[in-house]
């Protein structure tokens, strides 16, 4: 033990006398820290997380590969190691002393960087600071071990410098330490997972941004620890005291051995893609951490109140402050300025009734659409986000694919509107929802029905089915009461079974949405204390007493005028809805073209006749909506997107335009599309209103939608979870 302590003390003295050691351990990282801090505006939040990770990794790589590797060769060539040999000692104290010295030299720099980030740039102290220090320690030890094995397999300083650079430069430039991995194509991102530094960058950023602990970084930590043991063992076996002792070139292959843990991890990541997914999520979180002030705008709060001239401070993905007028000087807030004079800021819009599994139109070749359905679903959520609809609720889609999509999008792996789902439809055998698969072969039909509908045969079965969906993580339950009319009739769900579904949904604290077609359906749904009435009725007047009861018990009303208008247009052979500006921007060109062609074809004539048989009276639908408003029923916006001519994307804008045309005040329509919808989704604690602490989901439009509701389509900017979106890139995601 005395030998170890003595060598550590000697190493420290020699290192501190070496100006290059002081420069590369302290001054060099600090130079990068201040350069990056100023260039990337570290004071604005998320950038400082990236800066710290970059600076720490640059320092750790230099400390390990150059500090341990090149210095060990220098000491051998200067005959310093020869003097130790006569002591006599084994190589072990020399190697261990190098590891310990590197840690002692570098850790003060780590603390200094965090101190400067906190006091100069306002970055909060990491909640998992202990984990950060442990992970940095493991990283230092792993890199020092790699440096020592580099020193063991070279015969000269010239060789060491070449080999160190061959290892150092890829880790420096491909790990995310100098260039953000968000810039990398997928194939290059996969290659980075063969490099130890990639895991170091990802671990530090995850701890700083997502408050990860060691548990979330156990695999790279174990790989670095294994690397340290293997590296020290090989360095011990190949250790040379004198420069005259030469080693065969084949010994350089031992360097591959020390990288084996990361070769295995890289191959595993390439197969599972979990690392690529994690990188995308982390990059998304970093993009959402900026600080900016939206200044001098009209602010629609979400609850009907309006601030005619105000400013919104966004920090770390949340609404941090709301100010009257222009607010404080952005410099004092360490925020970038977004000038918004003459514009209106609204909460992100919400569509509570969509069907993502249907495109809203007809492709020339529908087999291609279904062959890559996942891509289509992702694109639809991107179209909503492009349009400022930041949250949507699926009320009838295939269960597994929707849950998978929800996980992918809500995690931030890809950009798309926040997704909630009601899961399969509770209906009767032969009820609405089952007709979509009636012409499908039996084996496929059963698979689709298992994903799309639930047909309980008893109250106990209904309870069990609701409970099972709750366990799978759905956000709500949807039941079908409508029996249809005209040429489209269905079996109706037995009211006792419906009551069992409703009872269990309430017991499981799941909102209950009920699809209705006439006044009887609405009456049964209200009696079961449904959370929302979907559609109401397009063919019957809903009695005032039902609206009174809905208002009293807090049942929401979702009239879905958009789908009613679409059906009327189809029956009339009109495709004007496809020519709306935002629809043209988000709708796939081949979908829009194919829909036009299909509706003008002989088969389209049959389709128009079939849809024309279904009794839809827009005057009745708008009258029901107006009387619901008169009775102070809570209104919400749903479009029934996915039905023909209701293209995914700018759905809420058109829905509220129809409401205003029907006589609903714009402020009421906009509240239905924001705070009321959030309340129905039981998410008002983080979306639906411009309030301090809520997610920064914001839509900035030109003009005043309270005077001209079409202003909601004149989008200036969309902010999602604090990220100012480049809308033009939303459809280019992979």
Coarse shape? elongated
How many distinct helices?
29
Rg, rounded, reads 32 Å
The quaternary structure here is single chain
The domain tally reads 2
Structural class assignment: alpha/beta
CATH topology of the largest domain: TIM Barrel
Indicate the proportion of strand residues. 5-15%
Name of the CATH architecture of the largest domain: Alpha-Beta Barrel
Question: On the 0-100 scale, what is the average pLDDT?
Answer: 88
Number of strands: 20
Q: What is the straight-line distance between the termini? A: 56 Å
For the sheet with most strands, the description reads: 8 strands, mixed
- The low-confidence parts are none
Report on the architecture of this protein.
- The chain has 734 residues and is an alpha/beta fold.
- It folds into 2 domains: 2-287, no CATH class; 349-687, TIM Barrel.
- 54% of the residues lie in helices and 12% in strands.
- The chain has 29 helices and 20 strands.
- Strands 1, 2, 3, 4, 5, 18, 19 and 20 form an 8-stranded mixed sheet that branches.
- Strand 2 and strand 3 form a beta hairpin.
- Helix 3 (46-77) packs antiparallel against helix 7 and helix 19 runs parallel beside helix 20 (495-507).
- The longest helix has 32 residues, at 46-77.
- The radius of gyration is 32 Å and the shape is elongated.
- 52% of the residues are buried.
């Amino acid at each position: 033990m005395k030998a170890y302590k003595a060598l550590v003390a000697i190493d420290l003295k020699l290192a501190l006398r070496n100006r290059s050691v002081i420069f590369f351990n302290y001054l060099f990282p600090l130079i990068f820290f201040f350069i990056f801090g100023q260039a990337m505006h570290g004071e604005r939040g998320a950038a400082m997380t990236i800066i710290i990770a970059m600076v720490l990794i640059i320092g750790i790589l230099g400390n390990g590969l150059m500090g341990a590797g090149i210095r060990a060769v220098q000491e051998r060539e200067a005959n310093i190691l020869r003097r130790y040999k006569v002591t006599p000692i084994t190589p072990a104290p020399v190697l261990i002393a190098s590891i310990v010295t590197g840690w002692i030299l570098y850790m003060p720099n780590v603390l200094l960087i965090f101190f400067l980030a906190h006091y100069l740039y306002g970055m909060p102290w990491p909640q998992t600071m202990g984990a950060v220090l442990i992970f940095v320690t493991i990283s230092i030890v792993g890199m020092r071990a790699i440096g020592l094995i580099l020193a063991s397999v070279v015969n000269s300083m010239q060789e060491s410098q070449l080999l160190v650079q061959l290892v150092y430069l890829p880790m420096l430039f491909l790990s995310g330490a100098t260039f953000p991995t968000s810039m990398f194509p997928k194939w290059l991102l996969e290659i980075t997972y063969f490099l130890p530094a990639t895991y170091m960058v990802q671990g530090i950023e995850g701890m700083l941004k997502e408050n990860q602990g060691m548990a979330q970084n156990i695999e790279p930590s174990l790989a670095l620890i294994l690397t340290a043991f293997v590296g020290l063992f090989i360095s011990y076996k190949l250790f040379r005291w004198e420069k005259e002792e030469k080693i065969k070139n084949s010994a350089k292959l031992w360097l591959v051995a020390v990288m084996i843990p990361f070769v295995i991890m890289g191959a595993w990541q390439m197969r599972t893609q979990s690392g690529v997914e994690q990188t995308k999520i982390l990059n998304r979180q970093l993009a959402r951490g900026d600080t900016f002030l939206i200044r001098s705008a009209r602010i629609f709060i979400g609850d009907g109140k309006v601030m005619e001239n105000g400013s919104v401070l966004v920090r770390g993905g949340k609404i941090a402050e709301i100010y009257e007028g222009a607010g404080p000087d952005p410099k004092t807030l360490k925020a970038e300025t977004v000038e918004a004079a003459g514009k209106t800021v609204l909460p992100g819009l919400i569509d509570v009734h969509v069907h993502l599994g249907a495109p809203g139109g007809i492709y020339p070749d529908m087999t291609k659409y279904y062959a890559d359905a996942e891509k289509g679903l992702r694109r639809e959520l991107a179209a909503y986000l492009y349009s400022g609809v930041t949250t949507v609720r699926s009320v009838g889609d295939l269960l597994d694919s929707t849950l998978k999509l929800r996980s992918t999008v809500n995690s931030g792996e890809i950009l798309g509107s926040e997704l909630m789902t009601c899961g399969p439809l509770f209906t009767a055998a032969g009820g609405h929802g089952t007709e979509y698969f009636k012409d499908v072969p039996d084996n496929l039909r059963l698979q689709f029905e298992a994903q799309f509908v639930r047909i309980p045969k008893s109250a106990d079965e209904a309870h069990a089915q609701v409970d099972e969906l709750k366990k799978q993580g759905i956000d709500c339950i949807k039941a079908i009461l409508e029996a249809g009319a005209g040429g489209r009739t269905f079996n109706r769900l037995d009211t006792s079974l419906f009551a069992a579904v409703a009872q269990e949904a309430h017991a499981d604290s799941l909102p209950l949405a009920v699809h209705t077609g006439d006044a009887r359906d609405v009456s049964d749904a209200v009696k079961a204390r449904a959370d929302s009435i979907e559609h109401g009725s397009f063919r019957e007047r809903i009695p005032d007493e039902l609206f009174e009861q809905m208002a009293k018990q807090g049942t929401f009303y979702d009239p879905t005028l958009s789908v009613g208008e679409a059906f009327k247009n189809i029956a009339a052979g009109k495709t004007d809805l496809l020519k709306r500006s935002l629809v043209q921007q988000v709708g796939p060109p081949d979908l829009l073209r194919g829909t036009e062609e299909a509706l003008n074809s002989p088969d389209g004539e049959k389709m128009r006749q079939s849809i024309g048989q279904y009794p839809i009276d827009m005057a009745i639908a708008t009258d029901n909506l107006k009387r619901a408003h008169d009775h102070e029923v809570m209104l919400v916006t749903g479009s029934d997107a996915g039905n023909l001519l209701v293209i995914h994307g700018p759905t809420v804008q058109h829905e509220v335009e129809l409401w205003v045309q029907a006589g609903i005040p714009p402020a009421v329509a906009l509240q239905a599309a924001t705070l009321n919808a959030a309340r129905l989704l039981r998410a008002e604690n983080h979306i639906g209103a411009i309030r301090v602490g809520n997610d920064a989901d914001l839509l900035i439009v030109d003009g005043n939608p309270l005077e001209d509701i079409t202003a909601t389509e004149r989008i200036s900017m969309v902010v999602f979870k604090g990220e100012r979106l480049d809308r033009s890139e939303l459809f280019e995601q992979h």
